[in-house]
Amino acid sequence: MGLFAPADRRDALWALYAFNHEVAKTREVVTETRLGLIRLQWWKDAVAGIFNGQTPLKHQVVEPLAEAIARYNLPREPFETLMYAREFDLEDRLPADLAGMAAYAEFTSLPLLKLALAVTGEGDAGAKEAATGYALAGLLRAVPAHAAQRRCYLPEKLLQQEGMDQYKLYDRKEVDKIKPAVKAVATFASGLLEKPAAKGQAALMRHMAQMYLKRLETAGYDVFSSTFHAPPPLMALRLWWNS
Question: Which of 17, 99, 106, 226 is exposed most, by the fewest CB atoms within 10 A?
Answer without folding.
Answer: 226
